[in-house]
Amino acid sequence: MHWTHAPELPGADAFAEALVRLGIRPALGHTAADGATMARAITTGADATGAPVLITHLFNAMPPLHHRTGGPVAAALSAAARGDAVLELIADGVHVAPEVIRMVFDLVGPAAIALVSDATPATGLGDGRHRLGELDVDVHDGIARVSDGGAIAGSTATLPDCMTRAVAMGIDRDAVWRSASRTPATLIVTPM
Question: What GO terms are given for molecular function (predicted)?
Answer without folding.
Answer: N-acetylglucosamine-6-phosphate deacetylase activity
